[in-house]
Amino acid sequence: MFTRIARRYDLMNSLMTGGRHHAWRRKVADTAAGAPAGPVLDLATGTADLAIAVRARTPVRFVAGADFSEGMLQVGQAKLRERRVARTELLVADALALPFRDGAFACVVSAFLLRNLEDLERGLAEMRRVTTRGGRVVTLDIVRPAQPLWGAAFGAYFSRVVPAVGALVAGDRQAYTYLPQSVDRFVTPDELVELMEKVGLRDVGYRRFGLGTIALHVGIA
Ligand SMILES: C[S@@+](CC[C@H](N)C(=O)[O-])C[C@H]1O[C@@H](n2cnc3c(N)ncnc32)[C@H](O)[C@@H]1O
What we know:
With 221 residues, the chain is α/β, with parallel strands linked by helices. It has one domain (2-143, 186-220): Vaccinia Virus protein VP39 (Rossmann fold, 3-Layer(aba) Sandwich), CATH 3.40.50. The protein has helices at residues 2-17, 21-32, 49-57, 70-82, 120-129, 148-170, 173-185, 189-198; strands at 40-43, 63-67, 88-92, 105-111, 131-142, 202-209, 214-220. The model has no long low-confidence stretch (mean pLDDT 96).
């Protein structure tokens, strides 16, 4: 599905969020900057926007971007070339079985991955496994707003407007119908804290922004 929408993915993100998605990824990069020295893994890097934000915030770090969609990675690779982004490598990998040794990264970040995982706990355990002891795991994803009235308005926008725009702009109504469904199915921010702690992360916390629709979680490995 992500390979199918790869060419229109960035444009759809800008349309759906009014361009705010870059500012949200910068918050992840700011949080990642507090990790110990060492390389960063952007898991499910897609078209590489978060990898680029991390490089811009901490130019001394090496960044690896991994994703299982070759189509998304091709768009990301072209972007890295065009913008001459150094010390950043993209590779194909499955988040549920990462091809990295234990503790390989000082920090693992992900944006808009967790909702898509078939086994969320296993994905989080993999993120923790490849992070150095004392390093950081930072995640960003869409969540249901806590305020019921606003939640209903957000739900209507997401389940009616977004699929229509997806059909028009990306030519793929199904992918943009899956998106609101994945948000509906996703755990709450508090449940995500519990799962992160269950896989061994410490001092887990989160904050919301984007009118309460985006949650940034961070834990120490
Ligand atoms: C919504 S996109 C997010 C892309 C990027 N992180 C961003 O901020 O725009 C979700 C990405 O997760 C990837 N993905 C989903 N499940 C995955 C898995 N098990 N292993 C690797 N990548 C996965 C998809 O291929 C897609 O590129």
